[in-house]
């Protein structure tokens, strides 16, 4: 329980009507979750306007309302406050309600189109092995030390996020690593948080359905760095030309990493094989279990964060070298088969190309590469033909299939993908919408030494169709089908 006036500390109010000394039992942005004594924050969403649910929230017991537009006839029995942007206000309010937990631990945010989950998961495992109590907020799962809390988003909403951070503080976490998605930045989910540091991995084609232009997408990511305090660090990948852009207006102490230029943290790939990566990091040569050159960036970023946080470099490298890949990221599925089978979460053109190029670099000549891939519904449509073209280019056979069609017609999604497959590639392509059948067909086609890549769903354990999540796990299905066709 907290006083309304304390919860609104640091929120820019444009008008107030009613008592500010009210006891508030909970902060809600969904009228369906409001209880007696709640504060309801009306947010304009992508589907509906939360302002339309103010009356419903009051009927359910809300005693105070935060809104952008005051109603013409406000209910005099409750307190109304107006502010210019309720998305960001909700972040500050949630942080105040939970006593600003981000100030009580070292919070590091990682942004980028690809590599966020891998990097925060590496950091979580690294700091656990260095003996710390650690929090993790990721696409795959949230964690407080060894306790797993299901994740519904890459970056949780303002209230869940601050609640999770406050639980981390209660459980004595000294550090927390979180993914910061561009949706989260745009929707104020990280407003009110105090970061110890932020990391930029890369930016490439994704989410244009939401951000509309690539420049908007870049500018949204940049806000994470623009809003860092001078006490924080900003660490960017300089091999991505937008790394420099992220640093343009930050007050934070700047650091860079990369493989191409002389930077604060530089790595060189010595060996890249199915056994792992051998990297030279700042002059020290180390083997890692992760596969593919793209993972050199994730490993280097994790090393740099630990170094900036003043961990001992050689101990950090030793611990990092033993850490496994994150679930569903270049995960080998072993079914005692002669076929090499990999599940990977590549769901962007850049990720798919990286993974297929990595596979290509391991080929000795005669083996076939068979790729099973789809594109999500209700997401960026422009990436579909590009992903399909990349899949066809780097594979001997490609099977286009369903991947979370959500509310879209799956045939239309596949048609969009096929738009990227030119006449010279079309002979390589098959369409099998049922994902299980698609994986089965890939396994039936594969001979000894061939390579199967099942891309797009990684760790996901469902296929989402019209709001219903049906059980589906690429890794389990692949294993079952490899067994079926084992010689
Ligand atoms: C497109 C998008 O990001 N939507 C997010 C957004 O919902 P929205 O703006 O559509 O909300 P809305 O349905 O229009 O409702 C507006 C407001 O009215 C309220 N409302 C609504 C109905 C009602 O009866 N009463 C009521 O009060 C809602 O609670 C909300 O506050 O705000 C919600 C609350 O925070 C999120 O759950 C929701 O995530 C949806 C489910 C989602 O799928 N988001 C994905 C795209 C996403 O965020 N992905 C990124 C990762 C992407 C990546 O990097 O690959 C992530 O961070 O997870
Ligand atoms: N540093 C990287 N650069 C480019 N591609 C990468 C990198 N790291 C991972 N990938 C590819 O991107 C896929 C997704 O990786 P990861 O889950 O770590 O990214 P993410 O940024 O968390 O994605 P999301 O936006 O869905 O949360 C991997 O399965 C791999 O194919
Ligand atoms: N975090 C990503 C996940 C994409 C994974 C893919 N399986 C899909 O459903 O499109 C997104 O929300 O865009
Ligand atoms: Mg992620």
TrEMBL record:
Its main location: cytoplasm. Residues 328-458 form the Mur ligase C-terminal domain. The keyword Cell cycle applies. It is an enzyme of class 6 (ligase). A motif (Meso-diaminopimelate recognition motif) lies at residues 403-406. Carboxylation is probably crucial for Mg(2+) binding and, consequently, for the gamma-phosphate positioning of ATP. Meso-2,6-diaminopimelate binds at residues 379, 403-406, 456, 460. It is found in: Cytoplasm. One of its GO terms (biological process) is cell wall organization. Residues 110-306 form the Mur ligase central domain. Gene3D superfamilies: Mur ligase, C-terminal domain (3.90.190.20), Mur-like, catalytic domain (3.40.1190.10), MurE/MurF, N-terminal domain (3.40.1390.10). ATP binds at residues 112-118. This is UDP-N-acetylmuramoyl-L-alanyl-D-glutamate--2,6-diaminopimelate ligase. It comes from Reichenbachiella agariperforans. The gene is murE.
């Amino acid at each position: 329980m907290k006083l309304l006036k304390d919860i609104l500390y640091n929120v820019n109010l444009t008008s107030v009507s009613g008592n500010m000394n009210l006891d508030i039992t909970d902060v809600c942005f969904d009228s369906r979750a409001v209880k007696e004594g709640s504060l309801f924050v009306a947010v304009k969403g992508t589907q509906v306007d939360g302002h339309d649910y103010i009356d419903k929230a009051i009927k359910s017991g809300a005693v105070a309302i935060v809104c952008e537009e005051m109603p013409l006839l406000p209910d005099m029995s409750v307190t109304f406050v107006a502010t210019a942007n309720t998305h960001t206000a909700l972040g500050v309010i949630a942080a105040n309600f939970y006593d600003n937990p981000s100030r009580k631990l070292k919070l590091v945010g990682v942004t980028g189109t690809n590599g966020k989950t891998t990097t925060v998961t590496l950091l979580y495992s690294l700091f656990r092995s260095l003996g710390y109590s650690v929090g993790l907020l990721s696409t795959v799962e949230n964690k407080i030390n060894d306790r797993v809390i299901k994740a519904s988003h890459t970056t949780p909403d303002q209230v869940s996020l601050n609640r999770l951070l406050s639980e981390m503080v209660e459980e004595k976490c000294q550090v927390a690593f979180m993914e910061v998605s561009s949706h989260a930045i745009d929707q104020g989910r990280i407003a009110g948080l105090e970061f110890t540091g932020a990391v930029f991995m890369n930016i490439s084609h994704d989410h244009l359905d939401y951000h509309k232009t690539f420049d908007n997408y870049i500018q949204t990511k940049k806000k994470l760095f623009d809003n860092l305090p001078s006490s924080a660090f900003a660490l960017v990948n300089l091999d991505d030309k937008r790394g420099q852009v992220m640093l343009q207006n930050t007050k934070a102490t700047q650091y860079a990493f990369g493989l191409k230029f002389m930077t604060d943290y530089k790595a060189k790939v010595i060996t890249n094989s199915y056994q792992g990566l051998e990297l030279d990091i700042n002059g020290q040569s180390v083997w890692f279990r992760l596969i593919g050159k793209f993972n050199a960036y994730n490993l280097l970023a994790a090393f740099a964060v630990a170094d900036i946080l003043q961990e001992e470099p050689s101990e950090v490298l030793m611990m990092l070298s033993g850490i496994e890949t994150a679930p569903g990221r270049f995960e080998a599925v072993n079914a005692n088969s002669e076929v090499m089978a990999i599940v990977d979460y590549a769901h962007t053109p850049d990720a798919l190309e990286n993974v297929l190029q990595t596979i290509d670099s391991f080929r000795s000549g005669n083996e076939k590469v068979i790729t099973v891939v789809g594109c999500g519904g209700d997401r960026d449509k422009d990436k579909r033909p590009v992903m399909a073209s990349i899949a066809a280019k780097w594979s001997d056979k490609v099977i286009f299939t369903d991947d979370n069609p959500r509310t879209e017609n799956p045939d239309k999604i596949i048609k969009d993908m096929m738009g990227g497959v030119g006449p010279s590639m079309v002979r390589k392509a098959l369409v099998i919408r049922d994902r299980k059948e698609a994986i089965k067909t890939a396994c039936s086609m594969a001979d000894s030494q061939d390579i199967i890549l099942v891309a797009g769903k990684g760790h996901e354990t469902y296929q989402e169709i019209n709001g219903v999540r049906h059980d589906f796990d690429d890794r389990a299905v692949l294993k079952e089908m490899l067994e079926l066709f084992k010689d």
